[in-house]
Amino acid sequence: MSGLTRGGDTPGARFFMCYIAIELVVMATHAWALFLCSLAPSTEVGVLLAPGSIMPMAVLSGFFVNQQDMSWVFRWFSYIDYLNYGWQAMATAGFHGLTFNVSEDAGPGLQTGEQVLKNRLRLATGSDLSSFWVNIGVLVST
Fold first, then answer.
1. CA dist 7 to 16, 71, 87, 125, 136, Å?
2. What is the pTM of this model?
3. CA-to-CA distance for 34 and 13, rounded, in angstroms?
4. pLDDT tens for each residue of 87-107
5. According to DSSP H, which parts of the chain are helical?
6. How many CB atoms lie within 10 A of CB 36?
7. Where does residue 122 fall: left (phi above 0), alpha (psi -120 to 50 degrees), or beta otherwise?
8. Which of 28, 52, 106, 112 sits a CA distance of 20 to 30 A from 82?
9. Cα separation values, 58 from 71, 98, 104, Å
10. How far apart are the first and last CA of the chain?
11. How many CA atoms lie within 13 A of 138 on its CB side?
């Protein structure tokens, strides 16, 4: 239903790529929460610190607003935010190599997944998946 098993030379590769990106984001989030809870002086403070620190990360990760549209004051944060790299990896896994059937009556629209990535993430995407693997590498290193 989501189309993650179709397209490309190897069926299921898109699903595997999206799955590995989600799994790495979950592991990094768990590690971040454990780190914050280990620094907290009490359980109550730890329970408040973890979600309280992850919410700004989600807002500044580029999911809601493109990084290029953010003020320069906040843009630097997206480079140290692991959720930014997870978002880019999942978007690349979901849209890379897709083509859309857009009728002429619908007007000008996005025809390929690469156009969606370029428009939404405002990243230069080529025909290869190098940006996906760079994002995965950053997630593994966190």
1. 13, 37, 21, 18, 21
2. 0.79
3. 32
4. 889 888 888 777 777 776 666
5. 13-39, 43-59, 72-75, 77-80, 82-95, 113-120, 130-141
6. 19
7. left
8. 112
9. 16, 26, 37
10. 32
11. 17
